[in-house]
Amino acid sequence: MLTWFLCCLVCLSGIASWYGKPFHGRKTASGSVYNMHKLVVAHRWLPFGTKLRLRNLRNTKECIVTVVDRGPFKEGRILDVSLGTAKALGFVKEGLTEIRADEI
Predict the structure, then answer these.
(1) What is the pLDDT of residues 57-82, one digit of tens each?
(2) What pairs with residue 21 in β-bridges?
(3) How many C-beta atoms lie closer than 10 Å to residue 4's C-beta?
(4) Do the Cβ atoms of 95 and 18 come closer than 8 Å?
(5) DSSP-assigned beta bridge partners for residue 31
(6) What ranges do the domains of the chain cover?
(7) Cα separation of 69 and 42, whole Å?
(8) Fold exhibited by the domain 21-103
(9) Residues 5-52: pLDDT tens digits?
């Protein structure tokens, strides 16, 4: 007998910002040590360890990240990303960008 399971994957879009040096080396909400050079993000409610494919909607650059922290705490933003992620997505100078995040 074949059983099918319906899986609910998350798809988000909105504004992301990045955070770096002041938090580098400090513990995250998940208990891991924050490394601003890794491809990691903070999200308000996604479980720690969730993998997301991020796409910068302004330049189409993509990367895969892991949720390791809680945030952002600024209204109107859906993710805080590490400096490494901001570099991979090409928005370090701008500080903010419009993204799409798909759970994988």
Answers:
(1) 999 999 999 999 999 999 999 999 99
(2) none
(3) 5
(4) yes
(5) none
(6) 21-103
(7) 4
(8) Barwin-like endoglucanases (2.40.40)
(9) 555 688 999 999 999 899 999 999 999 999 999 999 999 999 999 999
